[in-house]
Amino acid sequence: MEQAWFIQITPHPMMTHLNCKEEKMETTREIINGKSRIVRTIKIDWNGEPKEVKIKKLNFGEYNEVQRASAKISSMGGIPKVDIDSVAMNENALLKSIIEAPFPVTIADIRALDKEVADVILTDVNELNSPTDKKKDI
Question: CA angle at residue 83 from 38 to 87, to 5 degrees?
Answer without folding.
Answer: 55
